[in-house]
Amino acid sequence: LLLFKMCSNIGRTLSRLKTVDEETMGESKLARVLTVFDLTALGVGATLGAGVYILTGSVAKDTTGPSVVISFLIAALTSILSGLCYAEFGARVPKAGSGYVYSYVTVGECCAFVIGWNLILSYVIGAASVARAWTGNFDALIGNKIKTHMLSCCSMDVPGLAEYPDIFSFAIVMLLTALIAFGVKEFALVNKVFTVLNIGVILFVVIAGLTQADIHNWNWTTDEIHDYFGMVTQTTIDMTPYGTGGFMPFGFGGLISGTATCFYAFVGFDCIATTGEEAINPQKSIPLGIVLSLAVCCIAYLAISATLTLMRPYFLLDTLAPLPVAFEEVGMSWASYPVAVGAICALSTRTYLFLEILPCTEWLKFNMNKNSYSLLGAMFPMPRIIYAMAIDGLLFEFLANVHKKTKTPLVATFLSGTLAGIMAVFFDLKELVDLMSIGTLAAYTLVATSVLLLRYQPDATPVSTDEATYEKGDSKPITQSTESFEIRMLIQPKSSLPTQTVSSIVNWCTVASGMYLRSTLSMTLFSVTAVLASSSGWNGASIAFSVIFMICSILPMICIGMQPQSNKKLSFAVPLVPTVPALNMFVNIYLMVSLPPSTWYKMLIWLVMGGMIYVFYGIRNSAENPNNKARAEE
């Protein structure tokens, strides 16, 4: 009995929910100066860039062919699912912290700490890796003089460390850290200038490129491709790298594989969700900023991918500098210079420069395929996650200090910037880049889960009084119900409004669906890998288990769909619940189980480090600790 009581107390502690005071929710120590345009520019700057300057050519040539347009469209639609979930929480909880604070409000303290801790790692590695990519391009521009000199005087031949200390990367990171610390308004102005210029160049590329469009480039047959290379090389060629021609030369499998890669091109909009305490009227501006930024990025990626594949056959695209090479091949080499302007602007937001006059490196291409963050897109939200966790008592109190004049989290900003700078100087980040994906995808999954759970709770998260109302006839919030559970309530609930029993049903169904879904995807990926490795047929048992697990993951969602939803109105709400959050969870879990096991082992080490901080500091100092609450009320 004592053991049961102790386990129960631990469970209650780990699942403590963050309470959001309706009266003080709009208060903030940070400066509320960001408009909808600022937030949209922030999201576009953090998201748009890599796909435009390299990803389109790389995916089109090696994975999808001209159907890269469809891959980007599917990736955009799946990203919008995540964007809608973030938009609803931006309307519900206008606080700094993004996925961390959203999961804290809904799922519990321990889970929120894990999400926040992983996001910190994601942003730190993201900032460090793109800083190294930035310096790699600059060094290539001046003939690799920096690398040559540093290797001659301070080479580091140690596994896990970089070839040489990249001091220039540290300087770039600290310069941008100072800009962010100086004031969010000044940062937003710089970001807007470069983002607008970047979009202007993209418009130029589309207009200029379409003047050279040839629809036949979407319809090359196998014989035509064979004849083309036969005339060029005068030898028999292997057609395997070029597929079967047509719009989908690599088939449906190539389309799906390309979609998974293109999905990472849309990661970055979540930095908008960290501005909950710096946005003007965040309940409206954050949802609008997220939706608008994703819409702009979607249109840009679709336009560029269509333009590029119409200008040149997919099998002739350059994977390192597709745009300048394509323009050169159609007799418009002068167009490389306007593209250079856009690339320089992207350096300030997406940190990518892919031109013949500014050579791209293989490391940069690797970084682009794995790292979806921009330099500013990683550095801006990083201190705000730390600040939010420190305010809640889960990280050290001094990290929550806000400068009186600039109204920015100064200590968190410089600490996170210094950490990112040190990693950029000393570490070989190729082996760590995959860790960024786990933190981001886990946050996406938890936010989608939180939207699902909140929609069926009888006492939903408080929202500001001017943004939340109830349907006619409901003069007071939904009351708790003491009804007992019956099995038929899974598909035939007794109440027309959420009750505690309904909430419990949804909670357990969500857990069951998530577990079965993970098993389904793991089994499917294992089967596909085994088939590809052995070139044998499909294993009947694996297919049967995958189908059974998939059915078991769908049935709980059907039960959730039968339950009554809260009728509380928000300034923005995700449509088609539970379908939209469920699809979002499916995509994110699929991408997570696709990551190699070594990535999860490294993440476990990081979580152990964070777990020590949480156990020895966070649990005791948490703002949700009853003892701390009692002292605060005295």
Automatic annotation (TrEMBL):
This protein's GO CC annotations: plasma membrane
Name of the protein in question: Cationic amino acid transporter C-terminal domain-containing protein
Broad class of the protein's primary localization: membrane
Membrane topology: Multi-pass membrane protein
Subcellular location, record wording: Membrane
UniProt organism field: Ciona savignyi
Keyword annotations from UniProtKB, A to Z: Membrane, Transmembrane, Transmembrane helix
GO BP, sorted A to Z: L-arginine import across plasma membrane
Pfam family, one: AA_permease_C
Domain Cationic amino acid transporter C-terminal: 572-622
Source superkingdom: Eukaryota
Residue ranges crossing the lipid bilayer per the database entry: 33-56, 68-89, 101-125, 167-184, 196-213, 250-273, 285-304, 334-355, 375-398, 410-429, 435-454, 540-560, 572-593, 599-619
One GO molecular-function entry: L-ornithine transmembrane transporter activity
